[in-house]
Design goal:
Helix content: 40-55%
Shape: globular
GO molecular function, one term: hydrolase activity
Number of domains: 2
Protein name: Alpha/beta hydrolase
Number of helices: 10
Structural class: alpha/beta
CATH architecture of the largest domain: 3-Layer(aba) Sandwich
Pfam family, one: Hydrolase_4
CATH topology of the largest domain: Rossmann fold
Strand content: 15-25%
Keywords: Hydrolase, Membrane, Transmembrane, Transmembrane helix
């Protein structure tokens, strides 16, 4: 082997080693890249939303999670609850606006914080979030809202959470805000040169849970979303077994105010009207 060949072999070997280290690092830290919780305590519910109260959710693996239960406006009370499953960042204090919009339309709202969020114990994972959402459904049932009188509203990664939840605890309806077919599709969009489909442990295969579902589903997404590309949300709408409405919000990005305001609450209201006819 001549000098050039030996040098090329050494470079190739170094690239393989560096690549392997990079992939190994991604494997080790992937959940810290997926989940970005605000871990600070949010305080009593009534301090933030007058009339709201604190709930404790007990998960199947023994965690006690705090959540807020927001009452409906008395003059519009629908006697229907919304289980709100948030996205991967912040905590429930950042969802006060959408909770107020939903309450104004007559919904009782359970604002869930997953494990590791909002002062809750534990660390987030796909299985953990599934257990957290199931405990929220249990808590609503204890409050008098069985699944048939509940709408699951998932935001971003929360769409994967409620897609799975509806497959085991079917509700009256599901609203998916910025959904994806599988979380690996989002990761592959942002990291096209990384083998994320092989690396990711938390996959949230939403379409697998929705394709044969008979639960009425509404899909809402922003056409300017750069986090969950709108074509991914459109694909969910196409594959969903019982689609009621597809709502593209023109020019709206993933975390714009409209995503936490009237357009989403209006879609929830139309879905409720549909399932209670």
């Amino acid at each position: 082997m001549n000098a050039i060949a030996r040098r090329s072999a050494r470079i190739a070997g170094a690239v393989v080693v560096i690549g392997g280290l990079f992939v190994g690092l991604l494997w080790a830290i992937q959940r810290s890249l997926i989940y970005v919780p605000d871990t600070s305590s949010v305080g009593p519910a009534d301090d933030v939303m007058p009339g709201a109260r604190d709930l404790t959710l007990t998960t199947s693996d023994g965690l006690d999670l705090t959540a807020w239960l927001v009452p409906p406006a008395p003059e519009t009370d629908r006697d229907i609850a919304v289980l709100y499953a948030p996205g991967n960042g912040g905590n429930r204090a950042g969802r006060v606006t959408i909770a107020a919009e939903l309450a104004d339309r007559g919904f009782t709202v359970l604002l869930l914080d997953y494990r590791g969020y909002g002062g809750n114990p534990g660390s987030p994972s796909e299985e953990g979030l599934a257990a957290d959402a199931l405990s929220a459904a249990d808590a609503l049932e204890a409050e008098g809202f069985e699944p048939a009188r509940t709408i699951y509203l998932g935001e971003s990664i929360g769409t994967g959470v409620v897609a799975r939840l509806q497959s085991v605890r079917p509700p009256a309806g599901v609203l998916l805000r910025s959904p994806f077919p599988e979380f690996t599709d989002v990761a592959a969009h942002h990291y096209p040169f990384v083998p994320v489909r092989q690396l990711l442990r938390d996959r949230f295969p939403s379409v697998d849970h929705l394709r044969e579902s008979t639960v009425p589903v509404t899909v809402v997404y922003g056409t300017a979303d750069t986090i969950v590309p709108p074509e991914l949300s459109r694909h969910v709408a196409e594959e969903t077994g019982n689609l009621v409405e597809e709502v593209p919000l023109e020019g709206v990005a993933h975390n714009d105010a409209a995503m936490f305001g009237a357009p989403v609450a209006d879609a929830a209201e139309r879905l409720a009207d549909h399932v209670t006819r």
